[in-house]
Specification:
The complex is a heterodimer.
Chain A lengths: L1 H10 L5 H21 L20 E4 L5 E3 L8 E6 L4 H17 L4 E6 L4 H10 L7 E3 L4 H5 L7 E5 L5 E6 L4 H11 L1
Parallel strand pairs in A: 3-4, 4-5
Antiparallel strand pairs in A: 1-2, 1-5, 3-6, 6-7
Chain B lengths: L2 H28 L3 H30 L6 H6 L6 H6 L5 H22 L8 H22 L21 H5 L2 H15 L1 H13 L3 H33 L10 H26 L3 H24 L13 H23 L15 H33 L7 H24 L7 H24 L5 H32 L3 H11 L1 H25 L2 E7 L4 E4 L2 E12 L3 E12 L2 E6 L2 E5 L6 E3 L1 E4 L3 E11 L2 E10 L1 H19 L23
Classes of the chains: A alpha/beta, B alpha+beta.
Chain lengths: 186, 667
């Protein structure tokens, strides 16, 4: 292409400046716009909820034995994880969440909320994937998922002791991510 | 030899042949010699066969489940059906670029064959080949460097793989939609190369323009098919009841289609009147740039879309290539456009030329607006740091008026004579079609359509169809009268002589049908939602959807949850619809399969939202007229086929293989 271009310029009489200037005026901004998008993830939309009060919820656990509300967890940071049994990344991150809840359970509350799934499936899934180290809540009809703007599972929210959402993670989280996030909100 | 090693050798061969062939052929275009032409063509053939064999090697590796090849380990799976295994070739980034190169290889062979008589006479043929090979060198360089599918899997070699992207497995259209688009995109390389060659050589001429248009029509037809199939796929899979959502990647395929359509019309002006010679070349260059932009959109991860592959280092490389193409084109144009002999001036705006110019103007505005809407989110983020999304309403705001104007113009243009017309001529030529348009609108109004823009679009479609039918039919009747032939003989004889015009007018009929259908379906959709248990029913329009029950079906590669609905039209049972939710091992979210009951009048479309312990959430739509979008599309493709069909008993020189059009000619 460049070779061809130079060759053309050499053989032609002169350059048509209007064509060159108009052409460059059209293509340069376009290229600049496209270049500005490189390296950014279009899916990575910062949640509008960050630094806003976390929406309250009151949901029953999978076992059905008690109700957990966000208010009852005030005072400690909360790691709120939306997941499903039918999602592969959820399976991948589950051991990391269990490990983190064992390591940081004294200074942070861990809560799972089931997204679009059934009680039986969740019970079986938890038994198969290392049990439950923290309360897992059933979100019947999905009001919590809607309030938190859950787009796809897994999504994990870090809420500080004052009830403000500090961070949101899309996709599987690992132990290091949770540790770093909790250190930040402390 | 392992598949991986063989593949790497073939890719390397293709790269060296393309790079050296580009240099030789471009040199041959500048300083023609038999030796350069022969060597250039030999290297081009080597490039073409290497890429085709490389793709074949990958298909064999996929079929043999050779997981020692990295790409196979990435997208292969023993459970995947054989057909899906073959099309896994383009299910992921690396494979799709390999497939891309192989398609360019096929086009290269096509060009070699078509230009075999011309190559030693016209240096532009060498330059064309040089540019094609330069593009080929870029793609093979990508394969050899950052997107090599033939790398070895690091040990241990797995026994099985995850299988391709579930979207690919979910619907049979995914087997043909991507290759159609690729054939369209990649095929634009040939007209681009021909335009660059014409500018380099400082010469266009009617023969070169005709040949260029033919080479443009081929990818245009594939692109048309690809866009239609994509729309059909979205309709059948995505479950929101529509076929077009102005998604960035849909726009990416629509943009070059618009500019290619503009060129096809501009080239007729150029060919017939020598008008706007440089402009037609600009449109070819723009079309190719838009196909590269489209590839960038799908491969760079910069745009948010259902189609995009994940982020990869390929984005910046594509951007560099795009920059090279557009900057090179601008420089080349500015240096050479005055070398193209100026054409005659426009004699009167009231003429077919005038209509073509307005047509070009409308299409260019359309293209610009779509481009603006597509790139605006990036612009907003770059300037203001905010995420915005540009939705359907923005696009509809300009697409509706422009679409209606283009529909009317589609009728006005072919009805006007070349050169100069008086108002009396225009009145006579348009009276009958105008009556047809009014009648169409009245008929639909009587049938209950009262939305103004929809009626206007229908009137335009009726008007354009009458013009097209008259334009196709009049020569047949004239021939029958003058020669006293039977209707059949006259039809065949005329078709043989006016193939291009008939093809063009058939495309117009198809477009008019599709536009009418789009106008109706986008304004008269009926929607209903509900959550049902077995035995319960949802009412939509005159239909009554009774949920009979749900069932689970386990396929090797997925699990399907199906809900069965009995459909009553009033009290009469008319059929069963069974939409499903499919869960794939590799997918985070389930993928739905809506079910549709199509009639000529409307579609009943049922899509599951969720399905869960016997409870089914569903959305149902009545989409009027949708069948006619596909019928119109099929007519467009038929028209393209008629226009492209090789003329019989013509000189074998491919560059002049087009029969001179008897008179006028749409397309």
């Amino acid at each position: 292409m460049t070779a061809a271009t130079e060759q053309g310029a050499k053989r032609g009489g002169g350059v048509s400046w209007p064509v060159l200037l108009v052409g460059l005026a059209i293509v340069s901004p376009l290229l600049w716009i496209l270049a500005s998008g490189i390296g950014k993830d279009p899916h990575d939309i910062a949640s509008p909820l960050i630094d806003k009060p976390a929406p309250a919820f009151a949901l029953r656990t999978v076992e059905g034995d008690r109700e957990v509300t966000l208010d009852s967890l005030r005072g400690k940071p909360v790691v709120l994880n939306f997941f499903s049994t039918w999602c592969v990344p959820c399976e991948q991150e589950h051991p990391a969440l269990l490990a983190a809840s064992r390591a940081f359970g004294d200074r942070a509350a861990f809560v799972g909320i089931v997204f679009e799934d059934t009680r039986d499936a969740v019970t079986r899934w938890l038994d198969r994937h290392g049990g439950r180290g923290y309360p897992v809540l059933i979100d019947v009809g999905g009001p919590a998922a809607i309030a938190y703007g859950v787009y796809g599972v897994p999504e994990t929210f870090i809420i500080d002791g004052g009830g403000t959402i500090r961070q949101k993670f899309k996709g599987a989280v690992d132990f290091g991510t949770i540790r770093a996030a909790l250190e930040e909100v402390r | 030899m392992t598949h991986a090693l063989l593949g790497r050798i073939l890719v390397f061969l293709a790269l060296s042949a393309a790079a050296s062939g580009a240099v030789v052929a471009l040199a041959g275009g500048r300083a023609p010699s038999d030796g350069r032409t022969r060597l250039g063509r030999a290297l081009a053939a080597a490039f073409a066969w290497s890429t085709i064999l490389a793709a074949a090697t990958m298909i064999i590796a996929l079929l043999e489940h050779d997981f020692s090849v990295k790409y196979v380990a990435q997208v292969g799976s023993r459970e995947t059906p054989t057909v899906i295994t073959i099309v896994s070739l383009w299910s992921s980034l690396e494979g799709s670029i390999l497939f891309w190169a192989a398609v360019l290889g096929l086009y290269t062979l096509g060009w070699l064959r078509a230009s075999r008589d011309l190559a030693h006479e016209d240096p532009r043929a060498d330059s064309t080949l040089g540019v094609i090979l330069a593009v080929g060198a870029f793609f093979t360089l990508l394969i050899a460097s950052v997107a090599n599918p033939f790398l070895d899997t690091p040990p241990p070699v797995p026994m099985n793989g995850p299988g391709p992207n579930p979207l690919l497995q979910n619907h049979p259209l995914m087997i043909i939609h991507p290759p159609m688009l690729y054939l369209g995109y990649v095929g634009m390389t040939v007209p681009f190369a021909m335009a660059v060659a014409a500018l380099l050589g400082g010469r266009v001429g009617p023969d070169w323009t005709r040949s260029l248009r033919r080479w443009m029509l081929i990818p245009w037809a594939f692109l048309t098919a690809g866009i239609l199939l994509g729309g059909r796929w979205a309709y059948d899979v995505l479950g929101w009841g529509g076929y077009w959502g102005w998604d960035p990647v849909e726009n990416a395929s629509f943009l070059p289609w618009l500019s290619a359509t503009t060129f096809i019309h501009a080239s007729m002006l150029e060919e017939r009147r020598g008008l706007f010679r440089g402009w037609a070349m600009v449109l070819v260059l723009v079309t190719f740039a838009l196909t590269v932009l489209g590839t960038f959109m799908t491969r760079s991860g910069v745009f948010n879309s259902v189609h995009s592959f994940t982020q990869s280092p390929i984005g910046p490389l594509f951007l560099g290539f795009l920059a090279l193409v557009v900057m090179g084109s601008v420089v080349l144009l500015s240096a050479r456009v005055h070398a193209l002999a100026p054409g005659q001036p426009l004699r009167s705006p009231l003429s077919r030329e005038g209509a073509f110019i307005v047509n070009n103007l409308l299409f260019v505005v359309f293209t610009f607006a779509v481009l603006l809407g597509t790139t605006y989110p990036l612009l907003a983020e770059a300037l203001r740091g905010t995420k915005v999304s540009v939705g359907g309403p923005f696009f509809s705001d300009f697409a509706v008026p422009l679409g209606i104007a283009i529909t009317f113009l589609m009728g006005i243009g072919p009805a006007l004579p070349w050169g100069r017309a008086t108002f009396a001529d225009v009145g006579r030529a348009l009276a009958v079609p105008a009556a047809g348009g009014v009648l169409t609108a009245v008929a639909f109004y009587a049938a209950g359509i009262d939305h103004a823009a929809t009626l206007l679009a229908l009137a335009g479609a009726g008007f354009a169809i009458v013009v097209a039918l008259r334009d196709m039919g009049a020569p047949v009747l004239a021939r029958r009268r003058s020669r006293g032939e039977g209707l059949g003989t006259a039809l065949v004889g005329t078709l043989r002589r006016t193939r291009r015009r008939v093809g063009g007018q058939l495309v117009h009929v198809g477009v008019a049908l599709a536009i009418g259908a789009i106008a109706i379906s986008s304004t008269y959709q009926v929607q209903a939602e509900g959550v049902l248990r077995p035995g319960q029913a949802l009412d939509i329009g005159r239909y009554h959807l009774m949920l009979e029950g749900t069932r689970n079906v386990r396929d090797p590669h997925r699990q399907r949850q199906i809900a069965d609905f009995t459909i009553y039209d009033g009290a009469e049972k008319v059929g069963v619809l069974s939409p499903a939710m499919n869960r794939y091992a590799t997918a985070m979210n389930p993928i739905g399969t809506p079910d549709v009951r199509s009639t000529a009048d409307h579609d009943l479309y049922v899509s599951l939202m969720h399905i869960d312990r016997g409870e089914v959430g569903l959305r149902a739509f009545i989409n009027p007229g949708v069948s006619w979008v596909w019928i119109g599309g099929a007519v467009m493709l038929l028209g393209a086929l008629v226009a492209m069909w090789p003329a019989r008993r013509r000189a074998p020189t491919p560059v002049a293989a087009e029969a001179p059009a008897a008179a006028g000619g749409g397309a």
